[in-house]
Structures are given as C-alpha cells and as structure tokens.
Sequence to fold (76 residues):
Amino acid sequence: MTELPDGVFRFLISLATAGFAGVWLIVDLVLLARARRPRRAGRRDPLLADRVFGYLVGITISVIGLVGTLRFNGVF
Fold:
C-alpha cells in the first residue's frame, strides 16, 4: 500500500473544506436575498425571522471555514 504525501493530503483536505464552505456560503447568500424580499406577512413574521437567522448562522460558519482553510495553508 502506498502512502499519500503530506502535501497532497493537505491539498485534498483544503479543497474539500473550501469547496463545501464556498458552496454553503453561496447558497445561504442566495436564500438570504430571497428571504429579505418584502412579503405579505411582512418582517414581523417569526418564521421568516428564524429563516434569516439560520442563513446568517450558515454564512458565519462558511466564512469561518474559508478563513480557517486559508490560515491552515499560510495565506493569512
């Protein structure tokens, strides 16, 4: 059985982490933009407020994932 070099392993893990975090960021930004449009229920709808809060948490997690990946690879 051959061993995976350290540099290749770091690249694959970084690619996977940045890929998931990047896709998550884009999806949550699109969903947040859709949720912020005015609706009949208005901004006082608790279900809409919960969705917006969830999207903001997702955006925060994805930014942490992207920044962590960049720091792990010595970019920051």
Remarks:
- Residues 6-35 form the longest helix (30 residues).
- DSSP finds two helices and no strands in the chain.
- The two ends are 35 Å apart (CA to CA).
